[in-house]
Structure formats: structure tokens, C-alpha cells
Amino acid sequence: MSALKLGCIADDFTGATDLANNLVRSGMRVVQTIGVPTAPLASDVDAVVVALKSRTIPAAEAIAQSLDALKWLQAQGAQQIYFKYCSTFDSTPEGNIGPVTEALMDALGCDFTIATPAFPDNGRTVFKGYLFAGNVLLNESGMQNHPLTPMTDANLVRVMQAQTKRKVGLIDYKTVAQGEAAVRERITALRTEGVGVAVVDATSNADLHLLGPALKGMPLVTAGSGVAIGLPANFGLQPSVQASQLPVASGLQAVVSGSCSVATNAQVAHFKASGRPAMAIAPASLMHGQSDTVVQQVLAWAAPLLNDGPVLVYSTAEPDAVKAVQAQLGVAEAGALVEHALAAVARGLVGLGVRQLVVAGGETSGACVQALGIAQLQIGPQIDPGVPWCHAPTDSGGLHITLKSGNFGTEDFFSKAFGALG
Asked: Is-same-fold flag (6-240; 245-421)?
């Protein structure tokens, strides 16, 4: 078995597949694990992405889980560690990006790392330290209304500094444009100034490819998934079609959506407008122990429809509706109720013969994958930037599943995803 080149820790399940997708497209053979494995790596791969569900849990728990993942990856011989977070830098002033970054730096004994959520393919760019989503600043993109991690400041240096004791600096677009030598020179200068974490500008894939060589040998890289496109070449790897091949797809098709992002709201609306069957789950209907009843009603509705094509089950709602439910139930309680119900629906749909499943939303994806007992995913072809099909081995012959970040995908994503499997 060849040495593991890159060991990755992702703070949610959709983010993990997003990262794995970019690594596969750049030539790496990748396995994604659900949680920290309990056994040594059995596959001959170039990279492993350990998917955690740690983005919104208490910081101390996120740190503990991330350090457990690090220990396992180190035991597998990982030559470089990559901490992956969302391209919208989802976090709060308390974390968890800063605290986890610091804990990993301490464990690795490194005094410097970079931080950039830039992912130009999905419209996430960093300029002068400010994060843009499309043509607007992050805090004007709809992320200011996120139910768990509202992003009200687009200045990443300021956001990161609030989460870490280390001094935070900037490697700006002018430096990145000059290439590896200039970036390395800037890193040296920042370290001399006592900077421990540097936000890096990137407005295009070309910037990420210029940045990549400067990160060779850096013990810890922290970023969204975009930086991944510039790393495989450091290990002598080039893009390969074979890296993304999956088993042939079969079985029934369904979509489960729990994200309330602007993008997913549009995808739900498009699917419904196409005439396909869709059923909404209202969070308030799950109160007072009614969750199991609601799940059975949904599955009874879906069963006779599945043979005619994909169905959609969703709890997606507009920000005002989400806030109203949170006010009634509390943020954590409302989120947990919906996640539990959608995970039970996903498990029930697979029981009805669904073998091609689209799941939208990071928290929803985590809950569904855990409910389905999936321990490992093989990463396949890309549907849209950051969203690949994956394959999970099961007793029933395997499940094709895609875990879509709420903010990702074109408006027709739900409709076209199944066509991408052939």
C-alpha cells in the first residue's frame, strides 16, 4: 500500500464530499469516512477525508473530535493535514473554525498556517481579506440569515481574529499573483511579525493553482475545498478519469432536503414547478412526539409514486418562517426535530427501494448518513462544482448518494442530478 499523501478533516458531511470531489478531479484516489474510523485504512488511496459533524457543536467537542481524526490520520502516515470548512466560513465569534485550527496547530507543533474559504467555481472569492458570495459581500448574500451561523461580517481577518488567540494576518491578491516565491516570502515576513494564521486572497482558480506550490510541506492547511485543486500536483499527481469511476447505478430515486439556503429554496421551487411530486414537512408538526407519525405519513405518500421517478421530501423554508419556528421551539430543538425526521424519511425511502438519493443541507446530510449506517464513501463524478455523486457499499448492493451543501448547485440541480449517473 502506498503512503497516504493527504489526510483531511472536514467539519460537516457535505463539505467532506465537496473537498473529496476537488481532490478526485485533480487526480487523487479518495475515500471519505463517516466519522473517525476504528480500524486502519484498508484502501490503497492518495487521500482520506474524515467527515465530522462538528461545525455547530460546542467548540470543546469539535476540538476533541478533530484531534481524534488527526491521530487516526497520523497513524495512517498522512504527509499533510487539511482542515476543511465551508466556503461561506460558517462560524460564530466563539468558533468553531478558530478553536479547531489552534488545536490542530498545537498538536502538530506548527506555528503558522493559512486560512481561505475561496472557491471561485461556486462564486466564493476573497479580495483584500473580504469574502464575496457571487457579486456581493458575504453579509449581503443571505448568509446573514443563516439559522445557526449567521454571517454578518465579510472581513475574514476580523472574523478569524475573534476566534483565535494567534495573530491573524493577510496574504493579499498582489502577492498571490506573483506566485510561489512571493507567497513564501510573505509567509516568512508574517511569521517574523508573530502572525500565526494568514487569510489568503483568491479570486480565480488560477490564484489557487499559484498558491498550491507554496503550501508544499506545510504541516497544516486550513481552507474551503477550493485550495484542494492546487495540492495534488505537489505530490506528482495529474487529473485522471479513473479516479472518479463508480459502480453502475440502479434502483428508485428520491431527494431529501433540509437546507434553508437561498440556493436550495430555488432548487425546491424548480423541482416542484417541473411537476414532480413533493411533500413538505413543517417543523411545528413534529412537536409533542408526533415525529414518527409524520414520517410514516410521508413514506405512505411516497411509496406509490417512486416507480414513476424521483420524489422530493423537504423542510426547506424562507428565513422568516424558520425564525418563527425557532422562536417557538428554540434553535437547537427545531433543528434536531427536523434532522431526526428527515433522517428517518431517508432510511424509510431506502427501505422502499431507493438506491439513488440526493440529500441537501450539511446538517441534514450528516443526520441521514448516520441514520443509514454509512461508514465510507467512494467519490465519483461531479454534478455541479463541489457536489459529486458517491457510492456507499450496503447489504442490498450499494447506494448512490450525493450530499449537497445548502448553498451549492444550480437551480435545476435536483432535476439534473439523476441524469449525471447515466
From this structure: no
Q: Kindly list the distances between the CA atom of residue 102 and the CA atoms of 33, 155, 249, in Å, as whole numbers in the listed order.
A: 23, 20, 42
Quote the pTM value.
0.81
Task: Tell the CATH superfamily of the 245-421 domain.
Answer: Four-carbon acid sugar kinase, nucleotide binding domain (3.40.980.20)
- What superfamily does domain 6-240 belong to in CATH? Putative sugar-binding, N-terminal domain (3.40.50.10840)
Q: Classify burial at 238, counting beta carbons within 10 Å of its beta carbon; exposed 0-12, middle 13-18, buried 19 or more.
A: exposed
The three state secondary structure string of 263-285 is HHHHHHHHHHHCCCCEEECCHHH
Q: How would you list the strands of the sheet with 130-133, edge to edge?
A: 124-127, 130-133, 136-137
Decide if pLDDT at 163 tops 60: yes
Convert the pLDDT of each residue in 104-138 to its tens digit: 999 999 999 999 999 999 999 999 999 999 999 99
C-alpha torsion 409→410→415→418, nearest 10: -40
- How many whole angstroms separate alpha carbon 55 and alpha carbon 377? 20
Residue 68 CA, distance from chain mean position: 19
- Determine the Cα–Cα distance for residues 265 and 271; give it in Å rounded to an integer: 10
